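**Protein record**
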Amino acid sequence: MDSDSRNGSLGPLMIDLMGTGLDAEEREWLRAPAVGGVILFTRNFADLKQLGRLVSEIHAARNPPLLVAVDHEGGRVQRFRRPFTELPPMRMLGYLHDRNPEEALAAARAFGWLMAAELRALDIDLSFAPVVDLDLGLSGVIGDRALHPGADAVTALSTAFSTGANTAGMAVTAKHFPTHAGARADSHTALAVDDRDLHQLTDDLAPYRHLIAAGLESVMVGHVIFPAVDPLPASLSPYWMREQLRDRLGFDGAVLSDDMSMAGADVGSDCQQRILASLQAGCDMVLLCNAPSEIPGAIEALANYRNPASGPRLARLRGSSQTNWKELRKSELWRAARKRLDTLAAVAW
């Protein structure tokens, strides 16, 4: 057993898998000290039995167990469908908030709880949600993933969502810091630029300020460039991660990067260089997805990388309370949450 396993630390790299089970090469990757987690996609899900087995195998690959994460926001970004509840786009919560703020906050808590409880029933640690980018009507890739145009509404709804998820035993990840709201380009496929200065980003940062004060466990940093503030994408920027997020906002949780294979992170360096630069700039864990050919090189590049401060932060992201799928579906809490979400879209409209 390697020293990282003995001292209870996780590596700084989160990778993905190609199918519904682990092949020999992937098992070898998961045993590498540089790896700390796995992010699952739709291609990794066939049915509940298969998913439970896959998650168990991932957790069993290392000691301490690797983190298992997924993007399960609702709407068009929900990797697992039936028999999981098909969650509405988060924009629906914002629509409801305009009509009935109290009802919207109750729905947001139910949304967060239901999302987290169903994933925890399969022992999945983390969903990368909520999106707290403001809905400025500029970013197509965000679109109805955003809760609301107003900072106060986003703050209130994301706080309620987080309370629900935490109650179900799941940490939350606010994204995409500092914001993707003002960038028209999709950072998955192009360099995304937001020309606003720091003063103009005050409202965008407000939800983070409140969530951090309430105990936010993790933040995902996006690849947007803010040239009036710093020439680097936020995911590679010590200014954004250290000076703003850590020092100004007082965040002491885990900082994760968005996928380092995305075009928005490509500023003239190769994937390994970007990963190292992101970690050195302040990330605790970097994601590397949909680029299996890059994984061996990334593991090798990180073989000697250590950041003792990251260990406790990443450990906070482990899922806690859990029930099995059948018991969950029989519970009054699940039924009440389903009923509230089933009516959310109609009430909102």
About this structure: DSSP finds 14 helices and twelve strands in the chain. The radius of gyration is 19 Å.
